[in-house]
Design goal:
There is one protein chain. The strands form two sheets. This protein has a six-stranded mixed beta sheet with strand order 2-1-3-10-4-11, with helices on both faces. The protein folds into two domains: 170 residues, 3-Layer(aba) Sandwich (D-Maltodextrin-Binding Protein, domain 2), CATH 3.40.190; 107 residues, Periplasmic binding protein-like II (D-Maltodextrin-Binding Protein, domain 2, 3-Layer(aba) Sandwich). The chain is globular and about 55 Å long. It contains twelve helices and eleven strands. Helices cover 42% and strands 16% of the residues.
């Protein structure tokens, strides 16, 4: 063995076990523009590397279904799921744990939007959803909690079925796309994630001369981080606690961490657990998204 190869081997053997293990691969449902997601999760990966002492890489996926599939087959270890995709992932991977969510995710809301030229007017309660009958309408992704699952649930409660829309309902790839489609008049109305809408509004990206909020839904649990149980074998039995702690310790007083929290649209992360999403699972079974 050459001297250089012996030196390399000695270096690798001297590394802690976590440094020798394969990287922790994080992912997220692609609910916003890819450029924004790349920026957010790149910064988060660097933070987690420092806190956990393991290599961390971000792996983007093409759609919501791909995120669940990648988690199931072990290509993703830690994923930022929506309520529905998180339930789907945990049902397919026994032992997977919901660890952390933003404060807003315990009281999340969908917004129903209307193009101003449609003649639709804002309403104060669920019954007002009946005004969407005979209108063109777009949801977000087919597997989105805030852009499809819960909006469809509330529509059904108001007596509005998918066949009551004018033509087939649309399914946008992201909440940003839903906003643009309704704003452009491609659809008279649509449903989207309240948090994304507020963030776009703050940056001046919402044209209020063309679009308006019709109704804000009741609250429900939504986004959360889910950890694949296979990582315990790589990093130790207490790794889930370490990951959870890393999210809970994100601090607004630290500039780099404040930026991460800002990109997530929150001031802090809080603990969560699998049972918090029982309502999401129930609704998903009711409308046929989970068999």
């Amino acid at each position: 063995m050459s001297q250089s190869r012996r030196a390399l081997l000695g270096f690798l053997l001297a590394l802690p076990v976590s440094a020798q293990a394969k990287p922790l691969v994080i992912g997220a449902i692609p609910d916003q523009d890819p450029e924004l997601l790349q920026r957010l999760y790149g910064k988060l990966a660097r933070y987690l590397e420092t806190e956990l002492g393991v290599a961390v890489v971000y792996k983007p996926v093409t759609d919501y279904v791909a995120a669940v599939t990648a988690f199931r087959v072990g290509d993703l270890d830690l994923v930022w799921f929506g309520g529905l995709t998180g339930v789907q992932a945990r049902l397919q991977v026994p032992g997977a744990q919901a660890l952390a969510q933003r404060e807003i995710d315990a009281q999340f809301h969908s917004l129903f939007m209307g193009n101003k030229k449609s003649g639709l007017r804002p309403f104060q309660d669920l019954k007002g959803l009946a005004s969407l009958k005979g209108r063109t309408f777009t949801f977000g992704s087919e597997s989105s909690t805030s852009g499809r699952l819960m909006p469809q649930f509330f529509l059904q409660q108001a007596g509005v079925n998918l066949e009551d829309f004018k033509g087939q309902p649309g399914f946008a790839n992201s909440h940003d796309t839903t906003l643009r489609l309704v704003e452009a008049g491609s659809y008279e109305a649509g449903a989207m994630n309240e948090q994304v809408f507020l963030k776009r509004s703050e940056t001046g990206a919402v044209d209020y001369t063309r679009i308006q909020v019709l109704w804000r839904s009741p609250a429900y649990y939504d986004y959360h981080w889910v950890l694949n149980p296979t990582v315990q074998a790589r990093y130790g039995a207490k790794f889930a606690e370490r990951v959870q702690t890393a999210f809970l310790q994100l601090d607004l007083k630290v500039p780099a961490q404040k930026e991460i929290l800002g990109l997530f649209g929150t001031q802090r992360f809080i603990r969560t657990q699998n049972r918090n999403y029982a309502q999401i699972e129930q609704v998903a079974r009711q409308i046929g998204k989970i068999k």
